[in-house]
Amino acid sequence: MNPWYLVYCKRSEQERATINLERQNVACYYPKVRVEKIRRGKRVDVEEPLFPSYLFVSFNAEEVSFTTVRSTRGVADFVRCGAKPQEVRNELIFSLMEREDSDELRDQLSDLPQPGDIVTLGGGQFEGLEAIFKEADGEKRSIMLITMMGKQVEVRVSNTDLR
Questions:
Q1: How far apart are the C-alpha atoms of 31 and 99, rounded to whole Å?
Q2: Among 51, 81, 94, 132, which is disulfide-ready with 145 (CB 3.0 to 4.6 Å)?
Q3: What is the rounded CA–CA span in Å between residue 31 and residue 56?
C-alpha cells in the first residue's frame, strides 16, 4: 500500500488538482461535509471541503515523482516536515473516510454557534466581550457583531477565541 501525503492546493483549486492528479495515477482523497446554508433566503444542504485548500494523495514514489505531483496544476506544495513531505498515517485517512458519510461529523459541526447566538469571546483583543454570532467565515474565522460606543460593529475573530 502506498503512503498518504498532504498537499496544499491553490485557493479553490482542489477539484482541478484532483482531476489532474488522478490522470497521473495518483489516488486523491478530498473530504467533504454536508452543511446547511441559507442561499437566497432558503435553507439548502451544500457540500463544503472539510479541510479547505488541502488534499490527501497516495502514490508510488518510484512511478510518480514528488516533483511531478508538486508541479501539477492546482497544487501549491506538499505539507512538509523539514525538507521531506510528511506522511499521513493510513488509520487517519481511513477514519476520515469512514466518518465522512456519517451524521456524527455533521452533528459535531452543528455544535458551532448559530447566527444570532450570543457568545463570549475567550481570547484575542476582544477577550471577555459579548458578541452576536453572525456567520462562520470559512477556514478558522467567524464574523461577530460587537457593540462599541453604542453602535454594532462587524469584526472577524478566530474560532479559537470563542467560548
A1: 10
A2: 132
A3: 9
Give yes or no for residue 14 having a pLDDT over 80. Answer: yes
Distance CA 53, CA 131 (A): 29
Burial 67-105 (b: 16+ CB within 10 A, else e): eebeebebbeebeeeeeebeebeeeebeebeebeeeeeb
pLDDT (average), residues 69-74: 94
Question: What's the whole-model pTM score?
Answer: 0.62
CA 70 to chain centre: 20
| pLDDT tens digits, one per residue of 75-108 | 999 998 888 898 999 988 888 888 776 666 555 5
The residues near 53 (Cβ < 8 Å, ≥ 6 apart) are 8, 9, 10, 11, 12, 14, 139
Name the nearest CA neighbour of 65 among 85, 38, 94, 95.
85
Question: Taking the CA of residue 135 as centre, how many other CA atoms within 13 Å lie in the half-sphere pointing to its CB?
Answer: 6
Structure-block grid coordinates of residue 87: 506522511
Domains of the chain, earliest start first: 4-109 (3.30.70.940), 118-161 (2.30.30.30)
Has residue 155 got a pLDDT over 70?
A: no
